UniProtKB/TrEMBL annotation:
<feature type="domain" description="Endonuclease GajA/Old nuclease/RecF-like AAA">
    <location>
        <begin position="230"/>
        <end position="430"/>
    </location>
</feature>
<dbReference type="GO" id="GO:0004519">
    <property type="term" value="F:endonuclease activity"/>
</dbReference>
<dbReference type="InterPro" id="IPR034139">
    <property type="entry name" value="TOPRIM_OLD"/>
</dbReference>
<dbReference type="Pfam" id="PF20469">
    <property type="entry name" value="OLD-like_TOPRIM"/>
</dbReference>
<feature type="domain" description="OLD protein-like TOPRIM">
    <location>
        <begin position="486"/>
        <end position="550"/>
    </location>
</feature>
<dbReference type="Pfam" id="PF13175">
    <property type="entry name" value="AAA_15"/>
</dbReference>
<dbReference type="InterPro" id="IPR041685">
    <property type="entry name" value="AAA_GajA/Old/RecF-like"/>
</dbReference>
<protein>
    <submittedName>
        <fullName>Putative ATP-dependent endonuclease of OLD family</fullName>
    </submittedName>
</protein>
<keyword id="KW-0540">Nuclease</keyword>
<keyword id="KW-0255">Endonuclease</keyword>
<dbReference type="InterPro" id="IPR051396">
    <property type="entry name" value="Bact_Antivir_Def_Nuclease"/>
</dbReference>
<keyword id="KW-0378">Hydrolase</keyword>
Amino acid sequence: MLAMRRFLSPRSCPFEIHDFTLCHWSEIIALGESWIAARYAGDVIDLAVDPWVSVLPTLDLWLHVETGEMHHVRDLIPTLDWEGGRLGVRLRYEPKDLGLLYKDFVGAVSDAEAMKEAANVAAAEEHRDADPPPDPPKLTIWPANLVDFLSKKLSTHFTIRPYSLDPAKLAVPDKSQARPQALPAVSLPIEGDPLNGLIRVHDIPAQRGFGEEQSGQDDEDAPAVGVGSRLSDQLRSYYAKHLDPTKGPDPKDLGALQAIEAAQDTFDKRLTESFKAAFTEVEGMGYPGVTDPRPRVSTRLKAIDGLNHSAAISFEVDVIAQDGATTPLLRLPESNNGLGYQNLISMIFRLMSFRDAWMRVGKASKGATITNTEPLHLVLVEEPEAHLHAQVQQVFIKKAYAVLRAHEDLGESKMLSTQLVVSTHSSHVAHEISFSCLRYFRRLPAGMAARVPVSTVVNLSEVFGPGSETERFVTRYLRAQHADLFFADAAILVEGPAERMLVPNFIRAHYDELNQCYITLLEIGGSHAHRLKPLINHLGLLTLIITDLDTLDGTGGALVQPAKGANQKTNNATLKTWVPSVEDVDALMDADAADKTLRVDGDPLFAVRVAYQTPLAVIAPGSAEPETAYPYTFEDALAFQNLTFFSGLKGTGLVRKFSDAIAAGGGATAIGECMYRALNSGKKAEFALDVLEVEKFDSIVVPGYIAEGLEWLLMQLKKKQVEILPQAEQTEQSEQAEQAGA
């Protein structure tokens, strides 16, 4: 958002020194030091722009231009052979005149050095009798270096210049990292502003300051909206720009103008009578004399004055009449309405103002026509969710674009295009938007793509391919669930309702550090979790999948209780096709941590880990020797891990059947068979609710395969928090060494 404001609205949003990437500051400082060194050495200064190119902020704009629209981009056309289609322009923030920049910087450095020398001489004179003499006083005078110089003089010496790009060299991003083309050394900037008359930019910033009185709103030529303005201020400004009858009146305005003039005459007469006694008293003091001008009082009424008060906007309150009495009209001031409603009304009103300003509606037209209207209208909205509850957020994002197109010359017309860009942290806003419209910002640590932490942009329209079954499934699934996936540090995909209810409670009870992380938990069956694979891979989202073995007999026909050495196959599509891409149950039971983890080369922060039931050593009631149990699903794995706890648990349904199976004894195999039969007809969600109700829930031991997965996830999140990648890699090496030692 800030980058687009800087380049597309430089007057209202000028550049600052921090818009130069921090890792480039050392290069800029080095350039300044080379200038100073060359000056002292008497060398010739090479004031070429080439050393600056790699550190300058740039923005590449790509336009699609139809044949009949070339007149809008005549200054951007690269060659005479170009006949429409893709057209690119690079906006680069660069020095206006390197010679003048050099002269001013070196002069400022010389002045600073002279002041330091004078200060040192004065200090030495003051302490000339001291033994030993004190160190020179520490003194920092601007500019300390070239970056310090530019922190005050940036706008004086830098400007935005446009350059044409070659459409044939446009490269698609590689792993979501842009690949901008290099400009030829002989490239010359385009004269003038090629975007003038091409793009109209409006924006709604995140800080809107609702309910606060704003100063400086009396200028009727001010923008129709301002940062933090109340709705009444916006309404007054909108009236001044589009509705005021004193500006270019038409026949519809004559009645209003006559009424204003009649009111002004009546008020003038009343004022003259009211001030007559006061002026007579002043005349008794000797003024005015015979030749002095005499004071008169007159009014100047403007239509906009009717809106220039704090109660210009009020909200009517519903009142129920009683006993046939007349219902009074009750109104509350604007500040008494909820901030959420103020935000919604304000944003909608601003969008209307933007649209009407772009289309020169009403008094703002002044002869404007559709032929001289900018063909592109770019509207930027930051975090519209402020103060809005979930449903209103969804309503706003569904209606906002329609508001911007609600004009007779817009609608479905392609002659004038509106682009709405919304930045949000709200899953409710993302929930209402199709994948083709979503851009996901993924943060990368220092050392992965640059020397400092940066973000790459993932275009989610490219995740699944157009019209694929997987896209339809994932879109409908996320809309049926939620879109928290886009805002999480990690995701946990679980098999069913029991895991969905109990795993978060396990985390709260046993994994405090994990509980403090932003983790989204999605319930999605094992046969469908793999459908999220393209999305998770594109997001680079750390993911733990908690699923079931889903064992089939040797023929692959029927689900059976897990067993070792029975030639069983898994029916779980995630295990077969994603992680670990293994179908044989014996191999799955023997798989180690590395087999259950999927990593991507060149991306040490992204990994997918699967957790499923594995053989478990248990001591059944009445038995002294440990036996091997083969859990079938989450519920019996939990029971096997907590045999003593479940044996004394009172309840109904599966809980009761598990308790009876444990009490019946007969060893781990017999207990497992009883649980397996109970699971075929039991209600798993009811089981989870019964477990949640127990008094000593925190004493429940987390099933081993889930505990292993959660501990892995915690370790990965700790590594992800390290901003400098080499440290993260060292941490991973130490982890591997510890595992090898264990």
